Amino acid sequence: MSKQTDATRSAKDSRGRLSRIISYIVNAPFRIVQAVLSNGISTLRPYAPQIIPLAVCVLFIPLVISFSLLAGWSVWKSLSVGWDSPLYFQYGDGVSPYATAQIPPLLPQQRYNIALQLTIPASESNLALGNFMVGLALSTTNNKTLTYVRRPAVVVPPQSSLFFRTPYLIHVEVPLVDSFIAGRSKVVASIDVGRRDRWKTLGVGHERELTIKSASLYGIAVPHGVRGLAIRFPVTFGLISASTFLVILSIILGGCILPTMLRPMSQQNANNGLDEDGFKKESLRESGVLTEGHGERRRRRRSKSNRRSSSVTAVKVEHSESAIPPATSPSPSTRLRRRESKRLDSGSDSDT
User: Fold this and answer.
1) TM spans, by residue (predicted)?
2) How far apart are CA 318 and CA 29, in angstroms?
3) Among 112, 115, 53, CA closest to 261
4) How many angstroms separate the first and last alpha carbons of the chain?
5) Does residue 338 sit within a domain?
6) pTM
7) 102 beta partners
8) 236 and 24 in contact (C-beta within 8 Å)?
């Protein structure tokens, strides 16, 4: 039994040692990192007042520059000269070819010149159609009509040349609306192209429709006011807005960081015995003590001089001399009288 208990104890001891060794090996990296961090923090703690503002600047300056560039880019993008929306015409519904498109978001108070750009084949049917009409209806998403116009157009045959082949495609541009103000950002456009009289008596009737390869509805912003000046120079205004945003953010960042940078300097001056202007307080105190002592000496001298002057002015002044009558022969009946002053002097001597 004793051998079995010894064996179990040794097995438990070996397991415990093995578990301690494994835990020590596993926790070794964490202890190393903790030691490095604690040593680093203790080493950098005296320099924290200088390191923290520097780290804040390094962290926020790229963000400030990025936000400034983003502001300039957003201003430049908002000053876009125009927009373009592709159109896909529908055929075979018994009416003129038509298309509906959602116009890109508009500025409510911006004026736009809207036109239709058509790319059509130079075919005989298109050339034989002659004049046709282009109708444009602009409405809101709630189907409220903002404006409706119809403009005539014609396909002109391309010019032939001796050196170049006759082009197979013809580009037709049809102006529709001038200085249109939507008053809202979301607008829906409906366009129809062709003739409505159907021309059934001519040919086989295919001339009544216009063959279209591609089409797009585009708008050009009309410059007016301050925004018109910005539209004429979008890059310049984008750079100005980015610079303004950068200056404002820099001022805000500086106002937040400068107090934290100046406070440690004032504390260091206080520890070194300096006042806010950088002068030593001890020297000022010593000079103050000296000036106080010097002033006290002056006051004493003045008091002494005042006492002397008062003593000089307090000297007894004799009365003016009076005329002495001539001496007469004394008679036995008359007796000599003492002066009153002598009596007073003798009285004072007796009292003493």
Assistant:
1) 21-41, 47-70, 237-262
2) 111
3) 53
4) 127
5) no
6) 0.51
7) 188
8) no
Residue 21 counted as domain residue: no
What is the count of structural domains for the chain? Answer: 1
Query: In this structure, is the dihedral angle defined by the CA atoms of residues 8, 14, 18 and 20, taken in order, positive or negative?
Result: positive
- 103: in domain: yes
CATH code for the domain in which residue 123 is found? 2.60.120
Structural domain boundaries, residue 96 = 82-231
Spatial distance between the Cα atoms of 248 and 271, rounded to a whole number of angstroms:
36
